[in-house]
Design brief:
The chain has 91 residues and is mainly α. The protein is 51% helix and 11% strand.
Length: 91
């Protein structure tokens, strides 16, 4: 989406201020086609909210931080499990 390349697009050009913006990315597959690369999530809200916007409520900010931490932990477990499965299948 264009907003990824143009921070604050929503706020400045559309007259909207996002409450929260999360971004994610995944490691590339290895030459062997390993699909167990980690997916990472980031809170990029500050890059998409104009400085003139009201602050995000603290309760909302904490809730997002908690969810991001939970997703990261779940993903770390998934990657670890995939690594164990890969080792087991090679043995």
């Amino acid at each position: 989406e264009a907003a990824v390349d143009m921070p604050l697009l929503y706020a400045e050009n559309w007259g909207r201020t996002p409450q929260h913006v999360l971004a994610y990315g995944a490691e590339r597959r290895t030459a062997a086609g390993n699909a167990s690369g980690a997916v990472t999530i980031w809170d990029v809200t500050d890059q998409y909210r104009p400085s003139s916007a009201e602050p995000v409520p603290e309760a909302t900010r904490r809730a997002v931080e908690t969810v991001v931490a939970e997703v990261r932990a779940k993903e770390a477990r998934r990657v670890a499990d995939a690594a164990v499965a890969a080792q087991t299948s090679r043995a």
